[in-house]
Amino acid sequence: MGKLWVISIASIFILLPFLGNAFSPESPTDRRVLVLLDDSAIKSSHSIYFNSLKSRGFDLEFKLADDPKIALQRYGQYLYDALVLFCPSVERFGGSIDLAAILDFVDSGRDLIIAADSSASDLIREVGIECGVDFDEDPSAMVIDHIGYAVSETEGDHTLIASDDLIKSDVILGSKRIEAPILFRGIGHSLNPANNLVLKVLSASPSAYSANPKSKLSTPPSLTGSAISLVSIVQARNNARILITGSLSMFSNKFFRSGVQKAGEKTKHEKSGNEQFLTEISKWVFHERGHLKTVNVKHHKVGETDEPALYRINDELEYSVEIYEWSGKSWDPYVANDVQVQFYMMSPYVLKTMSHNKKGLYSTSFKVPDVYGVFQFKVEYQKLGYTSLSLSKQIPVRPYRHNEYERFIPAAYPYYGAAFSMMAGFFVFSFVHLYSK
């Protein structure tokens, strides 16, 4: 028994480093990231991107995708908070990782980056399908653009795309504008129309299409124009975030450092926009931006501070909540004019937009409706690029007691007046009728 006790204590101390670094909505930092590679050379050829993650406090662990020892869980606990798949050609993952394990990883609220290319395997394509995107079914297809290509030393190479068709969202791409076009060489994908959680971040131009660049077109291409997505993102309902792209090369040092000149344009940029684009979007994927939390949810009667166990119909009440956004280093007040609260029973009886003090505190006041039952305070906040907020709290609402009704109802004064005027009129009529000659 003594030996078993010592072994258990030792196991706990072994797991503490993993558990201590686990992602927490209260402090989304110091996160462990597993990077699966096709070839160990990718670690050096894409070192600028990896170093940018390390400089922001991420602990990267590199493994070959077919390593028989890799695992996402140990003793029922996840060892990592994010997974990066830089292994487009892998046919089968090693260890205990498979398609189901990756989906469970995302279902647990953790993040995922998928980078494919023209050698994408069926396994990577299946992962993409589960995330809401469909890569071109032709295994030899690449995105081609005879107008929006990047001018290069290789004449006629129109598979090197220079794209600047970006999503307009500061929370996803940062407030600083990306001036230079982004270099892309790889396969395109389309979005599943039935999945409203997936968004295009970088789109192809209207002149682009997906086909085999080494053969002539015999049939119309399946993907054309702006319907081709080069980079897409997903924010799941549990706030897990996914980045999907059809180009592993766009993360490479070569593309980061390359100058770029878009065909038909005179301006030549000394450096492509890849580094800025992928750095900023990785901040979003890893919850360094657009991550919200709520604290101090309160409600009480106007003029009071204590939260009651129930309300009475027609009571005046106040509701407040504090909302903060993670900046990568600290929690800052979140400022917006579209946060609403519902007073809900089967349907919202009250819907109020809350005002804020620019310090994170949102509040409003309203009258309890003249309906009794079990209500809910509900805040359902969803905004592009931000984690969704869902707050609810039940509260009963009772009717007036028998001794709480007004003795004389002001609305009934006309009826009181009519009754007394009738009585007075009858008295006058009777008096005149009896004593008149």
Number of strands: 26
CATH architecture of the largest domain: 3-Layer(aba) Sandwich
Q: How many separate domains make up the residues?
A: 3
Please list the strands of the largest sheet in the order they lie side by side.
2-1-5-6-16-15-13-10
Main sheet record: 8 strands, mixed
- The total of helices stands at 9
Shape: elongated
Low-confidence stretches: 1-23
Domain OST48 middle: 299-437
Domain OST48 N-terminal: 32-285
Family: Belongs to the DDOST 48 kDa subunit family.
Pathway: Protein modification; protein glycosylation
Q: What do these coordinates show?
A:
The chain has 437 residues and is α+β, with helices and mostly antiparallel strands. 22% of the residues lie in helices and 31% in strands. The protein has an eight-stranded mixed sheet, covered by helices on one side.
Provide keyphrases for this structure.
Rossmann fold, eight-stranded mixed beta sheet, OST48_N, 437 residues, endoplasmic reticulum, alpha+beta, Immunoglobulin-like, 26 strands, OST48_MD, transmembrane helix, five-stranded antiparallel beta sheet, 3 domains
